[in-house]
Design goal:
This protein is mainly β. The protein has helices at 45-51, 146-151, and strands at residues 9-18, 24-28, 34-37, 59-64, 78-82, 97-102, 105-115, 118-122, 132-143. Strands 1, 2, 3, 4 and 9 form a five-stranded antiparallel sheet that branches. The structure holds zinc ion (ZN). Residues 151, 153, 155, 160-161 line the site of zinc ion (ZN).
Amino acid sequence: MNNEIKDGQVVELSYVLKNTKGEELDSATNDAPLAYLHGSGQIIPGLEDALLGLKVGDKKSVTIAPENAYGIFDPSLKMKIHSSHFPQEQKIQVGMQFVAEIKGGHVPFVIQKIEDDHVFVDGNHPLAGETLHFDVAVVSIREATKDELSHGHAHGPGGAHH
Ligand code: ZN
């Protein structure tokens, strides 16, 4: 039971996530922890780095810059697109998400505003540009199963799927 967090282990965490204003953005409790596979990029890099070597019961407060969290806000991902570029069979609504191909990558976009024939979209992650504060506690650590290693994520309660 002296496991330390390292690559190839499934870790359960409880945490409280706050922004720099101290507003709570997200949390997970002891009873319903977040499960992730360490070393797989399943959680943001800054948090994964901070957790390396921790043991069950350890607690840590971490401040993570946007570069190691959800990225820097990119104004060029806010765009105004003519509605003719959207599929005609679908009614476009504010809040809808879709994926666009940009420079060979797939970027998820959210529709923010529709004005006449123009659609305003934002491809930034909602937490892009935010410095994040995590208070985390390690709930459990175990070896990943073969399936988890091949899928690249944790299974079971709190994981990607059961
Ligand atoms: Zn899976």
